């Protein structure tokens, strides 16, 4: 069972499978990552090859394991207050809409650092008595379950200021020593939902003042990027803002949005 090799043919099968399910294009340089993340599932089932694991997934008899495979291959690194200029913009933008029901969608929330950061910003800007809410979505059920807890190792809070840590985070004691938890008065403002952005069921989502879709499109090819943006745009208010990562662009992906500045997009009539 040790050092099971992933053949090029098997790698191609998994590349096509994760693309079909999640829209993610895994380049040839991701072969080692795939072995590392899926190898543990072979050991779990006592399988002797990745081909056997692929056949098990393709049989249709193990939907939970198929979700597990998606979870393992789609979980990405994130951290609190990543790309801080975006949160400076969010605070100023939200302040202008004080008094209205301000809504934000964190479209690929991973383990929750982004939506909890958004919650801290809105709590500071609008206050906890104001009408604001956050929807946080991801394709991975496992990562969403982790995000819902609001529980993080202390080192994950390095991007949070001391003042915000004291105000919105609870230090773990006894069995939770070494961790902190985001206070329930923030976490109750966040609704976590499993959503697949390439096959989006947007029922009940409504419209948002701000949509964050940061550092996820780098994993998509252009056709998938266009599909994802097209699926999400009906949920952006006409005077709303769509925020992407600094290594991403919407140029050539949609004619509906224009750049306000790098990484910030809006409908053309709102820019005017």
Walk me through this protein's architecture.
This protein has two domains: 8-74, Orthogonal Bundle (Chemotaxis Receptor Methyltransferase Cher, domain 1); 84-271, 3-Layer(aba) Sandwich (Rossmann fold). It has helices at 8-22, 31-45, 50-58, 63-74, 84-95, 113-126, 141-149, 162-168, 184-187, 222-232, 268-271; strands at 102-106, 132-138, 151-153, 169-171, 179-182, 190-194, 208-213, 236-244, 257-261, 264-267. Strands 6-2-1-7-8-10-9 form a seven-stranded mixed β-sheet. The chain starts with 7 loop residues before the first helix and ends with a helix. It has eleven helices and ten strands.
Strand content: 15-25%
Helical coverage, percent range: 40-55%
Per DSSP E runs of 2 or more residues, the count of β-strands stands at: 10
Number of domains: 2
Main sheet overview: 7 strands, mixed
Sheet with the most strands: spatial strand order: 6-2-1-7-8-10-9
Any idea of the CATH topology of the largest domain?
Rossmann fold
Point out poorly predicted stretches: none
Based on Cα principal axes, name the global outline: globular
Oligomer: single chain
Tell me the name of the CATH class of the largest domain.
Alpha Beta
What is the count of DSSP helices, taking H or I runs of 4+ residues? 11
- On the 0-100 scale, what is the average pLDDT? 92
Radius of gyration from CA coordinates: 20 Å
CATH superfamily of the largest domain: Vaccinia Virus protein VP39
Query: Which structural class should the secondary elements be placed in?
Result: alpha/beta
Q: Terminal Cα separation, in Å? A: 62 Å
Please tell me the CATH architecture of the largest domain by its name.
3-Layer(aba) Sandwich
Element-level helix/strand string: HHHHHEHEHEHEEHEEHEEEH
């Amino acid at each position: 069972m040790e050092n099971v090799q992933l053949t090029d043919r098997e790698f191609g099968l998994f590349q096509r499978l994760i693309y079909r399910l999640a829209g993610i294009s895994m380049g040839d340089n991701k072969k080692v990552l795939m072995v590392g993340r899926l190898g543990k599932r072979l050991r779990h089932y006592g399988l002797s090859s990745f081909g056997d694991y692929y056949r098990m997934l393709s049989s249709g008899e193990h939907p939970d394991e198929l979700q597990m495979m998606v979870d393992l291959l789609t979980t990405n690194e994130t951290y609190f207050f990543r790309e801080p200029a975006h949160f400076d913009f969010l605070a100023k933008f939200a302040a202008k809409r004080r008094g209205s029901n301000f809504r934000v969608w964190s479209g690929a929330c991973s383990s929750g650092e982004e939506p909890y950061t958004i919650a801290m910003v809105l709590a500071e800007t609008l206050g906890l008595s104001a009408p604001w809410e956050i929807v946080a979505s991801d394709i991975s059920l496992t990562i969403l379950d982790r995000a819902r807890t609001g529980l993080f190792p202390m080192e994950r809070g390095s991007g949070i200021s001391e003042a915000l840590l004291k105000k919105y985070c609870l230090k773990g004691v006894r069995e939770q020593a070494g961790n902190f938890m985001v206070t329930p008065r923030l976490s109750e403002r966040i609704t976590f939902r499993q959503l697949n952005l390439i096959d989006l069921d947007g029922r009940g989502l409504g419209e948002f003042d701000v949509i964050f879709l940061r550092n996820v499109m780098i994993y998509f090819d252009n056709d998938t990027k266009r599909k994802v943006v097209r699926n999400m745009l009906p949920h952006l208010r006409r005077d709303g803002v769509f925020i992407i990562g600094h290594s991403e662009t919407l140029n050539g992906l949609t004619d509906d949005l224009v750049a306000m500045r790098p990484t910030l997009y809006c409908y053309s009539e709102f820019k005017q």
